[in-house]
From TrEMBL:
This is UrcA family protein. Keywords: Signal. Residues 1-19 form the signal peptide.
Amino acid sequence: MKLPALAALATCLSLPAYAEKVTIGCPLVAQYSDNDINYLIGEVRSVVGDQEAGRIYAHYLDLRNACRVNGDAVRTVTVSPTLRDWLAQNGVDIRRFARRL
């Protein structure tokens, strides 16, 4: 799996301040395995640190669990400038992966 695709999921699941808001749903979450997510969290942790990476993972788990009950579940989250810049450097356009608010 390509890093940009995984990084897009991290973008959609982050929650720090000064962010642009995006809304994601179950179809995006369903594209990735637990192994993919664990790899992604490792990559993101090196960029944004343990605290933000932990928040990203917690949001992922929340949405994944909500999707098991309701396939139409969505979450609106924020993308930190650090993560947004890292994604841009890796060629990820978050608007491709999530609806901006």
